[in-house]
Each structure stands twice: as structure tokens, then as C-alpha cells.
Amino acid sequence: MSSANKVLSLYTGLAGFELGIFCAGLENLFYPAHFVEMDKYCQSILTNWFPIVPITPLIQDFKPLTDYDIVTAGFPCQPHSLAGLRKGTNDNRDLWTETINVINQVKPKAFILENVPGLRHTHQGDFFKRVLRNIADAGYDAEWGHTTVAAVGGVHRRKRIFIIAYPIGFRQSRDAYASKERADSS
After folding, report:
1. The predicted structure's pLDDT at residue 1
2. Among 9, 68, 143, 163, which residue has the fewest nearby CB atoms (within 10 Å)?
3. What is the arrangement of strands in the sheet containing 110-115, beginning at the earlier edge strand?
4. For the whole model, what pTM was predicted?
């Protein structure tokens, strides 16, 4: 398992990211190494499905004791959801600062964030700008887009925004490598 990438999962819930890894047949490339999840029911399911993966209930109590290659985080959406009061940073469930603090500590190869599309509109868009600025300050580029759960086989249409971040310069070096490969094959 040493060649597989260790995944740190924040706000794991019922392990959607991790189950996606298994459904895609990528368990030889990625494996869950640590969960951060406070819900007792979710913890019981995680313990059943992944009995050897440690669980830390609160992100504030998480201390990285090893290196992680990938971080996944579906950080709490209630402060940004159209179904809620949209208080953003004025909502005590807003855990973005804790999320980026962990990313800064871990320095993963890449990370994936998931939230509601309302994230882009919290505080007239200033919150999303802050998220992107924090990601850049941590040394990462980011791309984002929206999709629905139904678009990936789910039974409902809940929209989600996904942000994928990777080290600054990674995409340019990847694109340059691909261009060289195409030129060499011609």
C-alpha cells in the first residue's frame, strides 16, 4: 500500500469521496488514512466500513501525525446554503478557517473541496474570493465548477460546487510534458 496516496478526509460524513474512489476502481492508487467527522452515526458507519482508519471527531482537535497526499473536505454548507440564513462567517458552523489551516499544516499534493453553489455568493461573493485567496496563499492553483448529484448517477438534483487545487505551476508543467509527448510521438 506504500505506493498508494494517503487521503485525509475532513467532514467525512458517510465517506462519499472515499466510496467514489472504490466505485471508480482507484483503491490501489488512493486509500483513506484518517477521517475527521463529528457525527456519531457517521462515525459508526465509517468504523464498520473502514475499521482501521482513525477518526478524529472535531477538526479543531486534529493534529497531523503523518503525511497525507490528498485532502478531501466537504466543509459545512449551512453558512452558505440558500436553504439557510446564509450568515457566512457570522455562523459558528463556518469552518473554512479551520479547513485551510489543516491544508497549510498538511501541504498535500492536491485537495478537493465540495460545498453548495451558494458559497460563491456568500457576503456578496467576498467569501469565495477569500477562499481562492487563501488557497493561493497556501501555494495552490484552483479550478472549480458546478455539477448535480444526478449528473453522476444520484437520485436527486442537489447542486454542488467542487474546487480542485494543486501546487502552483503543476498544470503548466503537466501541459508542457503533454506537449512534449505529443511532439515526440509525431
Report:
1. 47
2. 143
3. 55-56, 30-36, 5-10, 70-73, 110-115, 159-167, 140-148
4. 0.86
